[in-house]
Every structure is written in structure tokens, then in C-alpha cells.
């Protein structure tokens, strides 16, 4: 009898219908093209920006390479757990977060950095803006086919529909930036809460609380799995030996640790953790300004953000990281012989449009996405990161009923959620 699996993209499949799990030959022309693009961008950054930008480009390349080779996702992880109870990917998140808080604690406590930058974590307010934004983001990532990081690495791998998701992610980010003062100033919102500073536990106490919470969450996923007996995750194309480092696939838990290390290096390099969606708002606002909108008058672009709007987009470190992730994923997919443009249809285009808008809008309201708010927030010992995760899971649950309307699959099992 064939073994049933949940694929990394979230859909069940019969492995006997997919016997070849090996990689194709490397796409050398694409690899050379990707390396050339990375080199040109690195030289341009060295000539026009600070030294940190070139370092961040390298970190972005490594982030994109890691994300693709492990198929390390947040969207599919949430969907698999909420639909059939498969918590393997959620447990990899807990490993990633445990490694991150272990690295972040001394960095934030003692101000450890490169280039003499001042370091600070992502600690943001808890309130209506966060609750609504994270919930919308949870729905959006299930319709759009990927989260913020997932959208970037899917674009790098040539998944055609994700270019549409990215475009409307940017548009949604601009609308969210325009509306943000209403959500933060006119709606009920509380203060930012740091488990390390606000509570008085210090970074050592906050680290211990975080590790205990991660252990509890991992234990809950195991309890759910024992009860629901979900299908396993399907294997992805892979090789063995030393070639696996270059061509993939990587184990989820190994990638989790690598991502945590790279995030910590990002924190020490630019003074704040890895983020994604600020750049989307910046790119879109530059475009809106070109079209005649007075974006400089929006509350979002006042104060600390004003300089970013006035400068080149390449001066923005988040932009550099994003470009690195896209190129890194492109190189990883080409190394595995897996880069190709996928087909699209009317229904998945509609889902990409709606999903992208919801993610862009939600990310602005929630002070970040799965990377800036969930990963970066929790790693920074911010309460808002945990609440973001809960609300995004709730948004995912609702989206499970919406996905079939757009022809998108939902994992099933004998103990189906419905």
C-alpha cells in the first residue's frame, strides 16, 4: 500500500506516483548568470553605499539559499498543522527560535555588533493594529501561496504566480502605510512589552521563559499528532554526501539553526534583526510618489522613516537583504536543476492578488510579517511576536475554508479538521 504524505507545499500526494526524488543536473548557465548579478550588485553597493550593505547582501544570499534548499516555510507549516495536525515544521520553528533567543540574548544585553552599530530588537505595541494585521496576514499567506520570505524565495525559484503575489504584496504595503496612523493612533492599542526589559526578568530570565514556551509548543504539536495521526511530509528532490550542501535538500532542523545564526549576524551587522516588508512599502511608495501621490505627507513616512523615503532604495538595508534572498534562492534552485517558470490560471491569479494585498496591508498593521514580527519579534523577546503567531494561525484556519474557492488544495487526513 502506498504511503501518503503531505508535500512541502501542503498538498497530499502518493509517493508511488512520484518515484524520482533525485535532482536534475545543475543549470550552469543560470548559476553563472546569478553569480554575475550578485557580483555586479555587490560592486555597486561597495561603490555607492556603506560597507554593511555588501555584508548584508551576502547574508541575504545565504538566507535565500537556505530557505530554498530546506523548503523552509511558514505558510505551509501553519497550514499543515491547522488542517491535519502535522507539526513537524512547527517544531522546526521552535528549534529556530530557541537558537535565535540564545544568540540574541547576549547580543542585545551587551550591545555586541559589527561596524560599531547600535543594536536593538523588534519590540512593538500590542493592540488592535497587531491583532487585525496578523489575522489578515494569516489569511493572505494561505491565499497568496507564501509568506514574506516564502514569496521572495519562490520568486527566485521561478514560481510565476508569486510574481503577482509580490506585486500586490507591495501595493498592499503602500495602502497599509497610508492607513497605519488610523490603526495606531485612533484604535485601542497598548504599550510594547519586552519579556526582558518591561517585565524586569532581564535577558537571562526572558531566555529561560522563551525556552520553556518553545518546549510547551513543541509538546502540544506532538500531542496533536498522536491524536490525529496526520500524513507525513513528502520527500523533496535531494542528493547525498557533500553535494547536498550545495544542491540540497537540507533537513528542516539544520536549516532552522542556520537561519537563526544568519539572523543574529544580521542583527550585529545592521543593528536590527532580519526584516522583509518595510522594503515593500518603500518600493511601492517610491512608485506612488512617481505617480503623483504625496506619500511624504503620510504619517508612516514621518520621523525616522523620512530619510529612507528621500534616499535611494539601495540605501535601505532591507532592500539589500530582499534582493539577496531572491538571488540566493535562484542560485539554489539552479544548483539543484529545479529552476523553471510554472503555469498560472485565473483562479490562482485571483488568490495571489487577494493574498498579496492582505499580506501587505496586514504586515504594516502588525509591525512586520512572519520574519519581522514572528521570527524577529520572538527572538527579540517581544510579546507581540507570540501574539502575531496566534493570530496568524487563526487567520490560517479561516483560510482553509477559502482556499478551495480558488482551486487551492487543503491537506486532508482521516481525522480531517472539518
Automatic annotation (TrEMBL):
It comes from Alkalicoccus daliensis. This is Uncharacterized protein. It comes from the Bacteria. It is a multi-pass membrane protein. Keywords: Cell inner membrane, Cell membrane, Membrane, Transmembrane, Transmembrane helix, Transport. Its main location: membrane. It is found in: Cell inner membrane. Residues 1-22 are annotated as: Disordered. GO terms for cellular component: plasma membrane. The keyword ATP-binding does not apply. Belongs to the TsuA/YedE (TC 9.B.102) family. The chain crosses the membrane at residues 30-47, 53-74, 95-115, 161-183, 203-224, 245-265, 320-339, 351-375, 381-402.
Amino acid at each position: 500500500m502506498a504511503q501518503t504524505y503531505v508535500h512541502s507545499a501542503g498538498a497530499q500526494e502518493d509517493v508511488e506516483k512520484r518515484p524520482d526524488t533525485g535532482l536534475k543536473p545543475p543549470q550552469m548557465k543560470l548559476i553563472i548568470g546569478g553569480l554575475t548579478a550578485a557580483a555586479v550588485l555587490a560592486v555597486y553597493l561597495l561603490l555607492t553605499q556603506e560597507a554593511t550593505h555588501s555584508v548584508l547582501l551576502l547574508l541575504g544570499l545565504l538566507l535565500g539559499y537556505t530557505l530554498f534548499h530546506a523548503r523552509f516555510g511558514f505558510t505551509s507549516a501553519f497550514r499543515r498543522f491547522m488542517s491535519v495536525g502535522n507539526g513537524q515544521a512547527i517544531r522546526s520553528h521552535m528549534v529556530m527560535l530557541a537558537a535565535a533567543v540564545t544568540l540574541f540574548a547576549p547580543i542585545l544585553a551587551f550591545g555586541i555588533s559589527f561596524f560599531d552599530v547600535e543594536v536593538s530588537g523588534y519590540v512593538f505595541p500590542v493592540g488592535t493594529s497587531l491583532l487585525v494585521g496578523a489575522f489578515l496576514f494569516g489569511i493572505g499567506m494561505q491565499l497568496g501561496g507564501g509568506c514574506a520570505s516564502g514569496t521572495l524565495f519562490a520568486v527566485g525559484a521561478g514560481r510565476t504566480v508569486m510574481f503577482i503575489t509580490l506585486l500586490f504584496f507591495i501595493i498592499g504595503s503602500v495602502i497599509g502605510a497610508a492607513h497605519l496612523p488610523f490603526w495606531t493612533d485612533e484604535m485601542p492599542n497598548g504599550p510594547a512589552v519586552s519579556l526582558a526589559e518591561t517585565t524586569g526578568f532581564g535577558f537571562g530570565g526572558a531566555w529561560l521563559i522563551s525556552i520553556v514556551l518553545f518546549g510547551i509548543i513543541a509538546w502540544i504539536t506532538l500531542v496533536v499528532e498522536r491524536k490525529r495521526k496526520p500524513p507525513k511530509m513528502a520527500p523533496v528532490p535531494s542528493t547525498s554526501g557533500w553535494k547536498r550542501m550545495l544542491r540540497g535538500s537540507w533537513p528542516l532542523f539544520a536549516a532552522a539553526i542556520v537561519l537563526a545564526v544568519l539572523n543574529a549576524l544580521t542583527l550585529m551587522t545592521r543593528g536590527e534583526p532580519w526584516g522583509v516588508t518595510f522594503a515593500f512599502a518603500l518600493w511601492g511608495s517610491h512608485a506612488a510618489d512617481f505617480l503623483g501621490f504625496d506619500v511624504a505627507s503620510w504619517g508612516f513616512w514621518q520621523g525616522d522613516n523620512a530619510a529612507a523615503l528621500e534616499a535611494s532604495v539601495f540605501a535601505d538595508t532591507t532592500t539589500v537583504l530582499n534582493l539577496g534572498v531572491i538571488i540566493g534562492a535562484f542560485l539554489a534552485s539552479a544548483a539543484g536543476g529545479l529552476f523553471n517558470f510554472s503555469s498560472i490560471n485565473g483562479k490562482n491569479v485571483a488568490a495571489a492578488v487577494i493574498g498579496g494585498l492582505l499580506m501587505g496591508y496586514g504586515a504594516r498593521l502588525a509591525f512586520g510579517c512572519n520574519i519581522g514580527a514572528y521570527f524577529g519579534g520572538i527572538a527579540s523577546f517581544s510579546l507581540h511576536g507570540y501574539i502575531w503567531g496566534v493570530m496568524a494561525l487563526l487567520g490560517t484556519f479561516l483560510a482553509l475554508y477559502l482556499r478551495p474557492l480558488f482551486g487551492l488544495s487543503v491537506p486532508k487526513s482521516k481525522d480531517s479538521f472539518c
